[in-house]
Amino acid sequence: MSSESSLRILHKTSPKIFQEFLLKLEKNTLYNFNPFGKINPSNVSSIVEKELFRKDKIKFFSFCENSLIAYSYLTKFQKKSKKHNCILGIVIGDKWQGEGFGKKICKHMINYAWQKNFEKVWLTVFDNNTSAICLYKSLGFEIEGIFMNDEQYLKKQRHVISMAIFNNKRNYVNKRKKIWQNIE
Question: Mean pLDDT, to the nearest integer, of 15-23?
Answer without folding.
Answer: 98
